[in-house]
Amino acid sequence: MKISIIHGSQRNGNTEKTIEIVKEKLNSLDDNDFFDFYLPKDLPMFCCGCFKCMDKGNYGGEHCPHSKYTHPILEAMKLSDGIIVTSPVYSMAESGQVKAFLDHFACIFMCHKPLQEMFSKTAFIISTTAGAGIKYTLKPIERSLR
Fold it and tell me: What is the distance, to the nearest Å, from the Cα of residue 35 to the centroid of all Cα atoms in its chain?
C-alpha cells in the first residue's frame, strides 16, 4: 500500500512516537510505501485565499501561488491508498500547521470541487495530548477529510 502521512508538527514528541508505532504495525501486515510530509517544513505558507485553485479548477496545480509545496503533497495523496493526518493538541485544537494544510486543500473538499480520485481513500487521524482537547483537534480534521 501507499500511504501519505501529513505530520502536523516537526516536534519529535508523542504524536511522532505514535506514528512510528502505527508505521511498524502497518509494515508488519504488508509492505508499505510512506510519503511523509512534515509541516510546516513541507508547506511553510498559509493559504492566501486567492481562489485561483477554485477559479482555474486545477486543485493546487500551477495556478496556486504555493504550488511548489502543494503540488507534491496533492500528487502523493492522489497516488496513495490511505492518508494519515497527525496533530498534537495546541491550544485545545489542531496545530496551526494542520489548519494551514486543510485551508490549502479545501478546493478538493466535497462542498467545493471534489476530486474523484479522493473518494476511495481511507483516512486515519492521530492526535496526542498531555491533557484535554482531543475532540476539538479531531473534529475539524475529520470534518474536512469527510
Answer: 11
Separation in Å, CA 99 to CA 29, 40, 75, 103 = 31, 11, 19, 6
C-alpha cell at 142: 475529520
Nearest residue to 145 via CA among 45, 91, 77: 77
- Cα separation of 85 and 123, whole Å? 8
Taking the C-alpha atoms of residue 4 and residue 74, their distance in angstroms, rounded to an integer, is 10
The x, y and z cell numbers of residue 2, run together, are: 501507499
Q: Is residue 14 helix, strand or coil?
A: helix
CA 84, 28, 16, 92 dihedral sign is positive
CA–CA gap between residue 130 and residue 17 (Å, rounded): 14
Q: What mean pLDDT comes out for the span 122-143?
A: 90
pTM across the whole model:
0.90
* C-alpha–C-alpha distance, residues 124 and 138, integer Å: 10
Instruction: Inform me whether the pLDDT recorded for 114 exceeds 80.
Output: no
